[in-house]
Backbone:
């Protein structure tokens, strides 16, 4: 599931984009009718472009299509300097241009209000204008850019040094910075056995990051989830270990079973799970795993099941702190009134997961 067929189509884009064949043709013809419809990431350069970019067109197998800037960034791509895929008509305000330049000057770091003030920008105005321009907060933009860079080459068995050499990034220090920002200090000298191995999976609902060690799966999240960097940081501190790109039997199984899950072939996950949490959290997570696919429970029902009737708020918090998305199906818990309530990966994903399970289960019956 890691490397999709060519030309690749991103996750969420699958439902909102023309077919890859049509987009590739538009790309090679520089067809302006497709401006704003898709963005094209070029795997060999790590750059994303508008359909009409005048740069030499890549081979089909080196293209990945995205529906939005955020997805292209999460895919590990940076904006092209020829076609400026972030530019709008009318042109973005000068403060927004300044923000973008500041990020590209040092994409590994997080620009704080103090940094913005140092650039003679009023932080709140600049942030508001950025959001108005792209429908994405400046913070989310920076996070996507960092996460994308760090994840760009996180794939099976790849050593960090190889990642730096062929990641397409001119600046090694920039890459290290992004990796460190997301995954902690560079794992120089760390033995792979003592590390959390990181692998990414492309699913029909977006790219996911999985972390596992010898005990089992520690984390499985959509990469655009808010707070993911903090979650990784907490895990690293609790387990006192570095994160390196790689794979092991648990991650292999997770990938294979996720593929079967999305294909509707099998909803149960049979692999070692090792989520880090309190006794109460573990009880709640175990209860979640007993909810059959295609069914839902309320927070109150789960509270009763773990012997804490009335503690639905605590159950809600434990549910929200689940770090093994899909495998521990916290998406099957909904409000007492049937509302979806929240989901770390976004409510739209919760809805899509439930729809998928219900559709498959009703056919199977
Ligand atoms: Zn371009």
Residues:
């Amino acid at each position: 599931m890691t490397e999709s067929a060519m030309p690749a189509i991103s996750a969420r884009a699958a439902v909102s984009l023309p077919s890859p064949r049509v987009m590739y043709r538009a790309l090679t013809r520089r067809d302006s009718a497709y401006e704003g419809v898709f963005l094209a990431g070029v795997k060999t350069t790590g750059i994303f472009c508008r359909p009409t970019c005048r740069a030499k067109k890549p081979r089909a197998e080196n293209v990945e299509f995205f529906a939005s800037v955020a997805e292209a960034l999460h895919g590990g791509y940076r904006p092209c300097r020829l076609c400026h895929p972030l530019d709008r008509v009318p042109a973005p305000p000068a403060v927004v241009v300044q923000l973008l330049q500041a990020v590209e000057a040092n994409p590994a770091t997080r620009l704080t209000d103090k940094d913005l003030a140092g650039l003679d920008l009023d932080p709140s105005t600049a942030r508001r204008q950025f959001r108005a321009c792209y429908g994405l907060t400046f913070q989310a933009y920076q996070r996507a850019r960092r996460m994308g860079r760090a994840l760009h080459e996180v794939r099976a068995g790849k050593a960090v040094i190889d990642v730096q050499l062929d990641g397409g990034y001119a600046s090694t220090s920039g890459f290290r910075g992004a990796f460190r920002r997301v995954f902690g200090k560079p794992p120089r000298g760390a033995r792979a056995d003592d590390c959390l191995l990181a692998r990414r999976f492309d699913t029909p609902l977006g790219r996911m990051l999985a972390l596992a060690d010898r005990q089992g799966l520690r984390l499985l999240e959509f990469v655009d989830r808010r707070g993911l960097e903090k979650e990784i940081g907490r895990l690293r501190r609790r387990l006192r270990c570095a994160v390196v790109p790689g794979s092991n039997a648990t991650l292999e199984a997770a990938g294979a079973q996720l593929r079967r899950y999305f294909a509707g072939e099998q909803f149960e996950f049979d692999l070692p799970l090792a989520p880090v949490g309190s006794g109460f959290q573990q009880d709640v997570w175990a209860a979640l795993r007993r909810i059959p696919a295609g069914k839902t429970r309320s927070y109150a029902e789960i509270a009763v099941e773990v012997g804490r009737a009335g503690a639905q708020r605590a159950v809600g918090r434990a549910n929200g702190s689940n770090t093994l998305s899909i495998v521990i199906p916290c998406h099957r818990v909904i409000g007492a009134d049937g509302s979806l309530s929240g989901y770390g990966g976004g409510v739209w994903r919760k809805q899509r997961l439930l729809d998928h399970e219900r559709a498959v289960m009703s056919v199977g019956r």
User: Anything to note?
Assistant: Residues 1-7, 9-14, 161-171 have pLDDT under 50 and may be disordered. Residues 49, 53, 55, 80, 82-83 surround zinc ion (CB under 6 Å). The CA atoms of residues 11 and 204 lie 4 Å apart.
